[in-house]
Design a protein that fits this description.
The chain has 280 residues and is α/β, with parallel strands linked by helices. The chain is 48% helix and 16% strand. It has a single domain, classed as Alpha-Beta Barrel (TIM Barrel). It contains 12 helices and 10 strands.
Length: 280
């Protein structure tokens, strides 16, 4: 009973009172094949995302020590439990580098695990996924499973051609079967396919991954379509922290997600805001 209450209390912070979640992923130092320069100042990137309306920040245990002052009292921490070994290879291996107990000690409201299926590493990946699901249940911490393509450092078209839609759908369902409370997944290319991913989750909340770097209009259009197809929000990294105004693009995403603005309206407001910033 107590564990159930703990998870319920944390979920109220991860999924805000409007029933949505705007997650900024600042964990790419653990997953990217190359270091990404904007992450040199993790506290600044955190503050910008929080100012723009992100209610959850995703990061590693090492960075939370540096970024914690930038959190607002209502900002949730989603602690990354995994890193990528050989992330540019055909069969990257996901290595668990933190425990759910550590997340509890750090005050995390959720934990996050990247899930890469296929090849000789799949049995170990499934064991890790199941183990994290059990530990989260034991500690009353929500579990966000990243049911994504094995690498997200390529375009949707490349990834879809290489792995296929059914790879994503199977991954989404597997994560739900093994205890995920929220499932993060890639954009499969169109609204109808994303709706099928939401259906595969069978009622478990789904958030859209930002994926590779996109033009603002494409990012916001995908977000509008994903919300229409049943998503509850986003988990976006590079398209926020590598943007010329992380705060502004987070605010635009938040408007599409929380206020259900159209992408066109959000883009128009974003362009005005960016113009004002450039004029200063």
């Amino acid at each position: 009973m107590i564990r159930g209450v703990g998870k319920s209390m944390r979920m109220k912070r991860v999924i805000d009172p409007a029933g949505v979640s705007v997650i900024c992923a600042l964990d790419h130092g653990m997953t990217s094949p190359q270091f990404l320069d904007p992450l040199s100042d993790i506290a600044a990137r955190t503050a910008e995302a929080v100012a723009g309306g992100a209610n959850v920040i995703m990061m590693s245990k090492g960075m939370i020590r540096l970024a914690e002052p930038a959190f607002a009292p209502t900002t949730s921490l989603a602690l990354l439990l995994s890193a990528s070994a050989n992330p540019e290879q055909g069969e990257p291996e996901v290595v668990q580098i933190a425990e759910v107990e550590e997340a509890a000690r750090l005050g995390a409201d959720a934990v996050v695990l990247f899930t890469a299926l296929g090849g000789q590493n799949e049995p170990g990946m499934i064991r890790t996924l199941a183990g994290v699901g059990r530990a989260c249940e034991a500690h009353g911490i929500p579990f966000i499973a990243e049911a994504e393509f094995p690498t997200t450092y390529a375009s949707v078209d490349e990834l879809k051609q290489r792995y296929g839609f059914e790879y994503l759908r199977r991954n989404v369902r597997l994560c739900g079967e093994l205890g995920a409370d929220i499932i993060k997944t890639n954009w499969p290319g169109e609204e109808a396919s994303f709706r099928r991913l939401v259906e595969a989750a069978n009622g478990i909340p789904v958030v859209l991954a930002g994926g590779s770097r996109l033009e603002d209009d494409e990012l916001l259009s995908r977000m509008e379509l994903a919300m229409s197809a049943g998503a509850i929000g986003c988990s976006v990294g590079r398209n926020i922290f590598m943007h010329r105004s992380p705060e502004a693009i987070t605010r635009a995403l938040s408007r599409v997600i929380r206020e259900r603005w159209t992408a066109n309206r959000a883009i128009g407001e974003l362009k005005q805001e960016l113009g004002s910033v450039a004029a200063r």
